[in-house]
Structure formats: C-alpha cells, structure tokens
Amino acid sequence: MGKKAIIIGAGPAGLTAAYELLKRTDITPIILEKSGDIGGISKTINYKGNRMDMGPHRFFSKSDRVMDWWLNIMPMQTSEEKKLTINYQNKSREINTNGAQPNDNSASDKSMLVIKRLTRIYFLRQFFSYPIQLSLDTLRTLGLIRTIKILISFLWVRFFPRKPEKSLEDFIINKFGNELYGLFFKDYTEKVWGVPCENIPAEWGAQRIKGVSLGKAIQHAIQSLNKRKDNSIAQKGAETSLIEQFLYPALGAGQMWEEVARKIEIMGGKIIPHYIVENIITCDDKVTGIEARNTKNNEVYPLAGDYFFSTMPVQELIAGMNGQVPMEVKEIAAGLQYRDFVNVGVLLQKLLIDLPDNWIYIQEKEVKVGRIQVYNNWGGHMVNDPNTTWLGMEYFCNKIDAFWALSDEDIKKIAIGELEKMQLARTTDVLDITVQRMEKTYPAYFGAYLQFDKIRDYTDQFDNLFLIGRNGMHKYNNTDHSMLTAMVAVDNIIAGITTKENLWSINTEQEYHEEKKSVDSDVVKKETPTYQTQHVN
C-alpha cells in the first residue's frame, strides 16, 4: 500500500496540495470537505445562471510558479489571432490563444480571460480612483481646502512620523497622512473589521498594503502621463494594487478549482464532501489519524494517514486535537477572532448610473455595505442576460452580530434600501435577489492573535502536519500565497525537510524574491526555495 495524505478542506490550498502530490510523488491524497462545494471562499455560486464570487478573486501573481500553474490548468483566451505576449516579473511569455473575443459566449468556457481592472471608492456621492491618484479629477472633487489639508498632513508625517508604529492607524497615517486616512481609510477599514483601527496591529497593514503610499500615488500620476497603451500585464515593476489587468476564468473564480478537483480525481485522488473533521489523533511528534463526521447522517469516519494538511480554521484544529495540548495553546486558539461575510446578489433591470468597475469600496458611513461587485465587468459568462445588471453587495460582520442573525428577507430589504440611499438603483428595478453567507472568511490580526506564535510552536512540532492556506495558518493570504504554502509543504516532504520556517515566511517581507533554485516538475532539489511575496487589498 502506498502512502496517504489526508487533506482537510477543498479550497485553493488543499486542492493545490493534492494536485502537487499526485504530480510529483506516489502519495495518494484524500480531501475531506465539510461543505458540498469546491473552492472554499474562492467558490463561484451559480444563481439562476448568474454567477457570483464571495469577494473579488483576481488571478495574478508575482510568482512564475503560480502563474505557470494556473495557465497549465486553464489556458488564456484573448482577442489576439494567434499569440498574446504577457509581461510580468520583467519576463515576457508568448501564449497560444484561440482568437476568441473575451466576452464572446460562443468561446471556450474553459479558459482564462484578460480582464481590465477598474476599482474605485464611493464617497460623498462621488467616485474616487483606487488607489488614490492625484489626478485633476480627484483634486477637483475634493476641493481646494481638502487638497491643501491632504498635502500638509502628508508632509507633516514625512518629518514627524508616528513612532513606534504599533497600530494600523499608525501605519496608514505614516503612509498617507492623517487627512487621507480620515477620508478614505478609517471608516471602511472599521466597517470591514468591526473594531477601531487603533486596535488592529500594524502587521495587518504591512501585509495587505505593502509599497502603496501617497508618495507612490504621486509617482504613479507622473508616470501615467507617459504611459503606453499595450496589451500586456506588467506586474514586476508595479505594486499589485496598481495593476490594471488581471486573468480570470470565464465561468468565475470557482471554475479554476472545479477543474483542479476534476483533474485530481482523474489522477487517483479522492474528494469526500460533507465531512467535518472533529478529532485529530496524535502520538508523540506525529499525527496518526483523524475522525470526521458526516454532516448529513452524523456517521463517524475514521481515517489514518502518513501526512496531514490542514486548511481548517486554527481555532477548530486545536479544539479537535487530542493528547496533551497545553492549556495556554487551547485558550489562545479559542480566542482567535474571525470576520464573517454576507454577499447579497441583486439582479437589476438597470442602474441609475453607469458602473464600469469590477468592484467599488463603499466609504459612506450611513450604509452597512462595504463593497459592491459588478459581475457584468468580470466577463460575459457571469450574467445570464447581458441586458441586466448583476451586483454583489458585500457585508462584513460576526456571527454574533445582529446583522448575521437577520432573516434573508430582512437583509434583502436592507440591501435594496441602501442601493436607493446611495442613488445607485431603484427598488422598482430589482428583478431578483439572493443572500449567501460565508463563515470565517477573514482571520483577524487582533485579540488572541498577538500570541499566535505559541500555537505555531505547538503545531510545528508535528513533523507530518502542515498548516496551509488562509484559515489553516490564520494568515490573511491571497490565493497565490495560499497556493505557495501548499507547494512548499510538498517541496519539504519530497526533500525530507521537517522545519516549517519556509512555509511561514511566505508573504511576510516587503520584498519578493524568486526561487533560489529552480524547481523541476518531477525532481525537487534538496535546497528548498523560500517565497516572500507582496500583497494586495
């Protein structure tokens, strides 16, 4: 009998781990997924032919390894007749295309589209570029007095920065100045997290908005004057928040993971839905097995394995571990906090104004909605009838909040009312509406998280246990970073490396470094690469 890897969770990290094991080892992966869906928070919901993602999921990365991986699963589709040149990380690559128009419904639906990005901030009943740009339109909308205050407060922090930089408030003010922080960051960030910015560690900002500042905005404004229009995706030389194009599967982000799941099962892996892992069995420095419960009939399913990958929330992982788990570790894990997510899909006959955006950040205080996606602008397959408008209104909350406890009908009324209040749509133009909920979407960087290193020290002692992905590491990673944690975990297994340091180092530093050694698809060198990536909002 060959070796088995038990993987908890069929999101991007868990599926990547399974695919890598099947491609590069003789280890058979078995994935246990508590829901009936594939993709975790990256799944795409099909509601009456209208597709909706649970938050924006752009496909781009500064990692060649991830970009190649994606394009191997799903090739690109563009309007070019033969080939498209993609530039990223100071490299050029020609990719064969089928010549289909990106929004042509007759085109292959198993392909990557090139999507033009437009993201704006809605504030004061006006739209502002995101990231903030010092364009004439922006300055005209803000007015002379606000503009002067912005420049003065920015110059002030250049000479008198907040030291030490302890909180997210300190971090953002040091980058943008107090005036811009109050206008465009404070209320939205507190809407997302439900706590004051002064209570969120600066580490969150260092990870999520690296390299972006008012100084960068000024530089970008100057460079844009000489910007050339071309058909490329230039990624290495620009901060990720300034990238103007990205790749996206024709049928939504979840299509990538559904295709990966299909390939995993063809290659001999197993994906077992509707099983929630409740008991992790350990012996000395090894995990020996798990017990999972079927969420439909409550039957318990014991499963032994040689390697274990966990993408389940750390809070639940520690609660399910048997053996002598230190009381301090249990208490810290129980105190970890998460932000939950409600997405309201609204189908409209029309909008009151044209919205060419992929998504919009809602800075307005008087509404609860934090972000709005316009799915029509993510490709022609996302909307059943292109003559209608399909929106995703995103609300951030906790399960203990009154908002989460509301009925779907009450949430629908709130969403429609807020569209009217923001003067974006009328109630009479609503054709259909649906409410979708997602628990533990965002791991929080406050509260018990400040002692997370003690959980890490405990879990790292188990040689065959690998914490990967966003919830698996309680780390606010994007998809590419979550995938890299899975890839590096498999690298370590192949190379016989037991330390987990290179997993935890992913997405921790300001600078991104390519692999120190190239990794062959079949043979991994003993010197395992370290990945450090930049991040986006």
Automatic annotation (TrEMBL):
Region (Disordered): 515-537
Domain of life, source organism: Bacteria
Biased composition (Basic and acidic residues): 515-528
Pfam families associated with the record: NAD_binding_8
PANTHER family: UDP-GALACTOPYRANOSE MUTASE
NCBIfam families assigned: PRK07208.1-2, PRK07208.1-4
Name the UniProt record assigns to this protein: NAD(P)/FAD-dependent oxidoreductase
Organism annotation: Niastella soli
